Amino acid sequence: MSTTGTTQLEQARAGIVTAAMARVAEREAIAPERVRDEVAAGKLVIPANRLHLQAAGGVATLDPCGIGRAVTTKINANIGASPVSSCEETELLKLRCAVDSGADTVMDLSTGGDLDEIRRHLIAHATVPIGTVPIYSMITGKPVEELTHDDILDGIAAHARQGVDFVTIHAGILREHVPLAMRRKLGIVSRGGSLLAKWMAHHGRQNPMYEAFDDICDVLRQYDVTISLGDGLRPGCLADASDEAQFAELDAVGELGRRARELGVQVIIEGPGHVPLDQIEMNMKRQQRVCDGAPFYVLGPVVTDVFPGYDHIVCAIGAAAAAYHGASFLCYVTPPEHLGLPNPEDVKAGCVAFRIAAHAADVARGLPGARRWDDQMAEARAEMDWNRQFELAFDGETARRIRQRDMPADSDYCSMCGRDWCAVRISKELKSQPAEK
Q1: Per-residue pLDDT reduced to its tens digit, 100-125
Q2: Burial class of residue 111, CB neighbours in 10 A (0-12, 13-18, 19+)
Q3: For the segment 57-84, what is each residue's pLDDT rounded down to a tens digit?
Q4: What are phi and psi of 329, to 5 degrees?
Q5: 285 in the same domain as 423
Q6: SS3 of 14-36
Q7: Of 330, 365, 400, which closes a domain?
Q8: How far apart, in Å, do the first and last CA atoms of the chain sit?
Q9: Domain assignment present for 391
Q10: How many distinct structural domains can be found in the chain?
């Protein structure tokens, strides 16, 4: 039973199993008390704005999900209009495509069009948690240098009142960190981070998000909005990975995460970024240590810089490693990363690539039930039961279409080997023969 005005974190600490916790437990096939205890410890979050749980907009009701190491790895899909491409219906199509393709959450990163209306439209149709970066709408129509304390609180409150479930706040990039980032090849590649660095340079003052942090948490607590502490200094190329600027910000967000939890707000920590494969394990373990096991939300990581157009594959490789070594939440990357705005087909490609990465990591971590799916597919293949294989496949429609390109629908073999060369068929025949004495 929920207590009005308190967050999932506060209720968990009070020993309460909320309806959202019970639903997460049901989805993950674990005990509700385990979910409660993980939430209470700050190691699992349930991004669920109270208004979204109550069907904000009167159309869709949120189906809560849990993010943390105790449960399956979750993936997020970024969508959003830009100043050169803006259409509410296109963004809604991307939302539906993302969810249908395995996204557990969706972030609206719109910087063009009517941002309030796009956000309202998406939340009204979203059964998954919706995230945003409020600074984008705070500076619509005016330069970032004019951003005030009241603008920050009013902007975040506006998102919370619409039903947004989690928000990225770049409060950990401090004034003293900016010179460290200027030593890099690519400097600051985060939009939010660069905007706040520009504000600090103009005013000669500390990050206004950092200075307003306790007030920000007060706003978020009212609606139970989860704070995602943004990585404004994430590396933008392999040469900048794991540098002094990145880890200085990580130390700052570790401190802010503790402050947010003390104020009753659930916390996610965002991380890199472009990271060579051999540095991923160290990055994941360092975050877990510095941030007290808070769920780690990583972009990629991008493990090589030279495959534009294929970055969804590049990043799925990094994502699988990150999820195995400590990340709980993977932000997908699409083929147009570094090139342009993704369309619905790109959204699907990114989601599928990251769903593969998440599942591979869950199997490797030995999560209960993760491997069962694969074993069921193996049984269907051994029996050459094609319909069962399509039922089990993540995207059975695509699997069926590929198989039937060259073969009649009722064939019991594929075009790779044909009937007589089929190793599975030969193995099945051998198994059926009497054992030699």
Answers
A1: 999 999 999 998 888 999 999 999 99
A2: middle
A3: 455 689 999 999 999 999 999 999 877 7
A4: -145, 120
A5: no
A6: CCCCCHHHHHHHHHHCCCHHHHH
A7: 365
A8: 66
A9: yes
A10: 2
Residue 15 has what pLDDT?
Answer: 97
Does residue 7 contact residue 265 with C-beta atoms inside 8 Å? Answer: yes
- Domain presence at residue 195: yes
Whether the Cβ atoms of residue 353 and residue 312 lie closer than 8 Å to each other: yes
Q: Identify the pLDDT of residue 120.
A: 92
Structural domain containing residue 378: 372-432
Q: 73 — alpha (psi -120 to 50), left (phi > 0) or beta? A: beta
24 and 165: one domain?
A: yes
Same domain, yes or no: 358 and 377: no
- 1: in domain: no
**145, 292: one domain:** yes
Q: Compute the distance between CA of residue 211 and CA of residue 14 in angstroms, rounded to an integer.
A: 30
Question: How many other C-beta atoms can be found within 10 angstroms of the C-beta atom of residue 365?
Answer: 14
Q: Are residues 404 and 259 in the same domain?
A: no
What amino acid is encoded at 151 in this protein?
Answer: D
Same domain, 275 and 291: yes
346 and 201 in a common domain: yes
User: Within 10 A of 339 (CB to CB), how many other CB atoms are there?
Assistant: 11
Those residues whose C-beta lies under 8 Å from the C-beta of residue 211, and which sit 6 or more positions away, are: 149, 205
Structure tokens at 71: 């449960």
Q: String of b and e for 211-241 (b: at least 16 CB within 10 Å)?
A: ebbeebbebbbebbbbbbbbbbbbbbebebb
- Asked whether the beta carbons of 293 and 42 are under 8 A apart, the reply is yes
